[in-house]
Design a protein that fits this description.
Elements lengths: L7 H21 L13 H33 L1
Keywords: Membrane, Transmembrane, Transmembrane helix
């Protein structure tokens, strides 16, 4: 499956998931304290990491469904 043919659902879940993962890593590295006092807690970075993993995992479902639909149509 090429990059052009990715389902819209995969884009809508995958891009925010990657952004959450990146933001979570930045917060866990300690760069959130300058933005807001709540972001200096390690729990904030952990929440974003878990949310990012969940979003990226959810982005796999449209990919799998599109692949199954393509195989079903090919038969």
């Amino acid at each position: 499956m090429s990059l052009k043919r990715l389902p819209v659902g995969a884009w809508l879940l995958g891009v925010p998931g990657l952004l959450c993962l990146f933001a979570g890593l930045v917060l866990l590295a300690g760069f959130g304290a300058d933005l807001h006092p709540l972001l200096q807690e390690s729990g904030a970075g952990l929440v974003l990491l878990v949310s990012g993993v969940a979003l990226v995992g959810s982005a796999a479902f449209p990919l799998v469904l599109a692949e199954l639909a393509a195989k079903d149509g090919a038969e």
